[in-house]
Design a protein that fits this description.
By secondary structure, the protein is of the alpha+beta class. The protein has a single domain, classed as Tetratricopeptide repeat domain (Serine Threonine Protein Phosphatase 5, Tetratricopeptide repeat, Alpha Horseshoe), CATH 1.25.40.10. It is built from 15 helices and 11 strands. The strands form 3 sheets. The protein has a 5-stranded mixed beta sheet. Strands 5-4-8-9 form a 4-stranded antiparallel beta sheet, with no helix packed on it. The protein has a two-stranded antiparallel ribbon with strand order 2-3. A hairpin with a 2-residue loop joins strand 8 and strand 9. The protein is elongated. The N and C termini lie far apart (about 75 Å). About 40% of the residues are buried.
Amino acid sequence: MAFGRLFIVLLLAGCAAVRSYDFELSGTLNEAAVGDVDGAIKRLQANNPRSDKDLLYYFELGMLERLRNRYDDSQKAWAAAQTRIVSERTVVATGADLMRSASSYVLSDRLRLYEAHDYEKVMLLTYMALNQLAMGQYEQARVAIAQTHELEATIDLARARALADVEGEARKRGAVTSFKELDGYPVQTIDNPEVNALKNGYQSALSHYLAGFIYESLGEPSLAAPGYRLANELQPNRPALEEALRGLDTRVRAPADGMVDVLFIVSSGTAPALRSQQFRLPVPVNETSVLIPYSFPLLVPGLFYDAPRALVIGGAQRVSLTPLTSVDLMARRSLKDDMPGIVLRAVVRATTSAMLQYQAQRNRDKEAAAAVGIAAFAASAFLQTADDRTWRSLPGEVAMARVRLPPGVHDVTLDSAMGEQRARINVSGRYAVIDFRVLAHKLFVQAPKGELQ
C-alpha cells in the first residue's frame, strides 16, 4: 500500500512538472505580435528559470532577439543551440544514447531530452546566415549556408538508420507502426497531396536559393548554380526561381551599373503547434483486453497566418511574391516521417500499462490491488502524453521577390488580405537582402547593416 501511495505521489509530481509548451509559446508570441518583444523575452525567461537552458529556449530566444535587430545576441543564442545539436549528434554517433533510447519506449516522449526536428536544424543554420547578411558579413554567411548542405547529407543517413531501427524493433515486438491504423487520428493533416509532394521534411527552397544568392554575390557562379537548381527542384514551375538560374552567368559577368540586386524575403505567421490528443484503445494482455490511453501529437496551424501577396515599391512598382518555403508543410512531413517511431513507443508503453493493470486485477489483496490499479491508470495517463515541443517562433510561410533598385531610400508596402503594412529601407552595394517578418499587424524589418561592393 505504501508503495502504491508513493508511486501515485511521484506520478502527480511528475505530471505537475510537465509543461504545456504550446500554451507558453502562444503567450510569448502574442506579446511579440503587438510589438512588445522585450516583454516576450521576459516571458520566455520566466518560463525557463533553470540555469541549464534547453535547446528550445535558445531557438526561441535567438528569433526574438532577431526581431528586435539585436543580431549579435541572436547569434549567441543560436550558437548555443548549435553547440547542443552537435553535442547530441556526437552522443548518437557514439552509441551512448542506447540507454536513453531504450527507456524512451517506456517513458513519455515529453520526458526525453528535446532533440530538434530535422527541419529545425536546417532552418537554424539558414537564419544564422540571414543574421550575418543583415550585418553585412557575406563571407560568414557563406560558411553557415555551406553547413546546411553538409547537414542535409547527415540527416539523410540518420533518417535511413532510424527507420531501419524502428522497423527492426517493431518486427521483434510484433507491433504495428502505421499511424493510418489509429482509430480517429486525422490522417489528412499529415498525409495529403501537399505534404506528399515534398521531397522530404528538411530541405527548403529558402536555404538553397539563399545559398545561390550568397555565392553569386561573392562572384562564384559555379557554386551558385547548384543552389538555384535545387531550389527549382524543391519548388518547380516557379518563374522567379527559374530566372535566377537562367540569368546567372549574365549577371555575374555584367559590369557594375550602380543598381542594387535586392532579394526580398517575406515571412509570415508562425510554425504550427503540436498538441496531444488521446485515444483509448484495447490492448491484449494474457487473453484479456485492457483499455489503455494512447496519445499522439497533432499539428494545428500556427498563429497569425496572413501571407502577403505582393510588394509595392515607391508607391508604383508592384512586385508579385513567389512562395518559397512552407515551414508548416515541412513540419507536417517531418511528423509523418516520425510517426512510425512515435507509434511504436506508444504501443510499447500501452502494453506496459496494460500489464500493470492486469496484475492489479489478479491481486488477491483488494486494497493493494486498488492502489496498484490507480497507480497503473495514472501511469498510463502520464506516460502516454504526447510531446508538444517544437520551435514555434519560426515563420509558417516564406515567400520571395527579387528586383533591381537604385541605391538609397525606398518606401515599400506589403499588400495582404489584412491590409497594407509599410516600411522604409535603405539599400546600397551590388547585392542586398531585405527580410520582412509579419506577425499579425506587426511588421519587423531585418535590413542590411553593411555593404557588399
